[in-house]
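seq:
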Amino acid sequence: MNTTKQYGEKADLALSMWVKLARAFSTFNRLTGKDIASYGLTQPQFGLLETLGHLGPMKIGDFCGKMLVSGGNVTVVVDNLEREGYVERVRDSDDRRTITVRLTEKGTKLFNDTFKKHAAFVAEISSVLTSDEQRELSKLLRKLGTALQEKV
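struct:
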């Protein structure tokens, strides 16, 4: 249902789509956030562990693009995960200014123990859409995101 009918057909349609997208994201994000919290992690911590678990060790600066957060935020997340023994910082032997972050054995175990469960949870809450609908939505969101990124 389109509740806005005062800005012209194109604008009304776009506003309606935006509200639905924002509400769906907000709900999806709350649900996945609760699941992540059940593992004793924040969303940024889980994101960093997931990135390392799938992509392997990387420089702190590289996380910023992967996780869409600032360098200062990544540093705090790494500090907290390091304090818990899940990650460690390793200085580059050729350039001591370069620091790589990698999972520890404890961090690898946490990633292996939690990510499959989280993936199953995401699949469960996504199952309201058929596989074809999920593929189509993914395609449309990529198209939208890619086009909008050019405007940033």
